[in-house]
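(Fold this chain)
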Amino acid sequence: MTSFIFYVKDLFSNDFFVDIDSCLLMLKNETEGEFPEDIYICVNQNGLNILDANTKEFVATYPYYNSNAISLFLEVRLGRSSKKYTFDTEIGDVIEKLDYKIHFRRKLWIDIIPGEDKQADSLIHFYQERDNYMLGLHKLEVDEAANLAALLGKADRGKGAPEANLANFVPGYLIKSASTSEWSKKIYTASGNIRDVNDEEAKVRFLKHVAAWPTYGTTMYPIKNETEGEFPEDIYICVNQNGLNILDANTKEFVATYPYYNLNYNSNAISLFLEVRLGRSSKKYTFDTEIGDVIGDLIDDYMKIAENEGKQED
């Protein structure tokens, strides 16, 4: 499975049309070198198209007969020759069917309240928060996890019944906390309580539940810490609108929290450097990671927003 990941710039932009029926999303493409930086994902009667936002020209087309669905996780089957992929034609004598996924993800979560934009909740927010939840970084009791599994089962019917597919609906570390029969009973009961809830409402209810957690709207990066003895070996660097947090992957507890006004950083392709101001002194940390530049880019975007908000308050 080959994946393209695009970060959402402006949701559901409709500020121009180029011989198409509708534009679904404007995206800031910072990950896929095949496509321009600013693109539109557009849909019309013939399929889904990727449009260069600057030249207003299509750079890729996905006919509907090659698509399973237009949703957050768009699955597209494309032809492939032995060496070259194309989006609109099949090249070569030997054609092999492959699955491609395009993931739409919100990069910056600024005051995102579940239920205010149900279309964005359905297409973007639900899937990101579901993935975060399934990382297993939250302390949960079996009853709470069973209720969430019932909501996930309603929201994502394609994965089967939750009680029969626990690994798809319950974080792995929790599964052995109860017997299979106990999980089935609790999830079945929870599902009965939301029998009249449709899939879209289930997504919003799930988001409203996790919105109370400190990790809501957070991008979490796994790090194998081999340099800083102050922190555990297995950690997650968690970045959101309030600052940077370090989470112990085993205890599921935050071991450090740094607001942006106390933080300086530097990053490259192999490391993330943090300098935390503590009054008149400071502490410096180095974390070896192959996504240091990715983490640094996200920190930079949040810090710019925090800086602008500070100027407006002044």
Observations:
- The chain has three domains: 2-106, 118-210, 219-313.
- Helices lie at 118-134, 142-155, 180-193, 199-210, 292-313.
